[in-house]
């Protein structure tokens, strides 16, 4: 049973949004400064909401086209995509998703778990950093596109000294992706876990070496309280589970974090201090709101801001918990991680919907019924 404050979406007595005629040709013939801002904006998770694995979910295209103007209120409604995924550049990912969904998604609308790391690029621009996750050196190139100049991977470390982790023999393809460095003379200032690591054993070993020595692979271990400049450790995605096209959820970067911390605690007796980004963290939701604010100012004028934000997600622990913490409206869909047969969600959303189209219909109808001046 659902919590008493949550009811499935039931269309109102007037014609549904799906059944009304659409005509995009008359949309926005005035310039941007004269456009009236809609009373709401959307933030969508991707996996389990718009797509599942490589496949587009059936109602996703209709939902996004509705926001592009195919709605009875004759207005576009701004939205961004906020995912705990990543591993490649935002431009590449937005182009791929635009092709799949049949709508143009601008790079500025696509926030991955690690997009927020652009904010740190100036501070670490000239310092050696280690990046984890993704295939070969792809996340290195993402970090460099953000402005980081001295970026290394654990494959670089393994190529430098194979005895760092003797249980993995580096392949020719992996070796071709490496950058040469002497890690005994290259103190690493920070470790950024951009995306889900591919070789947990190598990565846990390398990070343990770095944080116990103050940044030198193979350096003497020094208690954390005696280190003059401890290595900063930043995780971008706290998700323990995520939904792919496999029948049951898969473990994610949050599981890698727990594995690393368990090993580090077994070695030292403590967990290593770290910074966490990604949903449901406050920093990530603030970053998403700032991004939507910039879109509103560009489209509707300098003083425009989104009045009501709607988060549509499939994971109560990340999407819904984060939205509730940020005091946004939240809609939980049944097409991803959340399984209603396992009981009510751990974090109660504003609404539960069958799919993303039902979520969008409900939110639009709810806000525009309260704001008839926008009709």
TrEMBL record:
<dbReference type="InterPro" id="IPR050324">
    <property type="entry name" value="CDP-alcohol_PTase-I"/>
</dbReference>
<dbReference type="GO" id="GO:0046474">
    <property type="term" value="P:glycerophospholipid biosynthetic process"/>
</dbReference>
<dbReference type="InterPro" id="IPR006353">
    <property type="entry name" value="HAD-SF_hydro_IIA_CECR5"/>
</dbReference>
<feature type="region of interest" description="Disordered">
    <location>
        <begin position="1"/>
        <end position="24"/>
    </location>
</feature>
<keyword id="KW-0378">Hydrolase</keyword>
<dbReference type="GO" id="GO:0016787">
    <property type="term" value="F:hydrolase activity"/>
</dbReference>
<dbReference type="Pfam" id="PF13344">
    <property type="entry name" value="Hydrolase_6"/>
</dbReference>
<dbReference type="Pfam" id="PF13242">
    <property type="entry name" value="Hydrolase_like"/>
</dbReference>
<protein>
    <submittedName>
        <fullName>HAD-superfamily hydrolase</fullName>
    </submittedName>
</protein>
<dbReference type="InterPro" id="IPR006357">
    <property type="entry name" value="HAD-SF_hydro_IIA"/>
</dbReference>
<dbReference type="InterPro" id="IPR023214">
    <property type="entry name" value="HAD_sf"/>
</dbReference>
<dbReference type="InterPro" id="IPR036412">
    <property type="entry name" value="HAD-like_sf"/>
</dbReference>
<dbReference type="GO" id="GO:0005739">
    <property type="term" value="C:mitochondrion"/>
</dbReference>
